[in-house]
Amino acid sequence: MIIRGKEKWKKVIEAQKQSGLTIKKYCNDNPICISSFYKQKALILDEENIFIPVIIDKSNDVIDFDIDRHRIFCSKKNFKILLENLLCLSIMMKSKIFMLPSSFVT
């Protein structure tokens, strides 16, 4: 299936969310190229500058948040490492540098 246009991709991405299916299953069921789906989703999110609400409880060491209906829990230390690495990765991708920082590899 060939999908053209940002608005059509937004509808496809929303339909996938509403379906409750994984992206892989949704794309397989609706002959959509998985890599195209991820690329278009990233472009739309980047363009719209979407923020994910994060709950930080100062009384404990756990941070929790939702991504695509998945609840994520992690320690503040690990969350900080994750954000630092995502920032580095984002900068590297924009500048076309593809070496991962040592803290990214375990």
Question: How do the helices and strands line up, and which of them pair or pack?
Answer:
Elements: H1 6-19, H2 23-29, H3 34-48, E1 54-56, E2 62-67, E3 70-75, H4 76-94
Antiparallel strand pairs: 1-2, 2-3
Total beta strand runs: 3
The proportion of residues in beta strands is 5-15%
Order of helices and strands: HHHEEEH
- Based on the structure, what is the oligomeric state of the protein chains? single chain
Put simply, the count of helices is 4
Note the gap between the termini.
Answer: 39 Å
Mean pLDDT reading: 79
Uncertain stretches: none
| Structural class determined from secondary elements | alpha+beta
What strand order characterises the main sheet?
1-2-3
C-alpha-based Rg, rounded = 17 Å
What is the general shape?
globular
Classify the helix fraction into a percent range: 40-55%
Q: Biggest β-sheet: count, sense, barrel?
A: 3 strands, antiparallel
Walk me through this protein's architecture:
By secondary structure, this protein is α+β, with helices and mostly antiparallel strands. The protein has 4 helices and 3 strands; from the N terminus they run αααβββα. Strands 1-2-3 form a 3-stranded antiparallel β-sheet. α1 crosses α3. It is globular, with a radius of gyration of 17 Å. It starts with 5 loop residues before the first helix and ends in a 12-residue tail after the last helix. The mean pLDDT is 79.
Give a short overview.
The chain contains four helices and three strands, in the order H-H-H-E-E-E-H.
Keywords:
single chain; 106 residues; alpha+beta; three-stranded antiparallel beta sheet; 4 helices; 14% strand
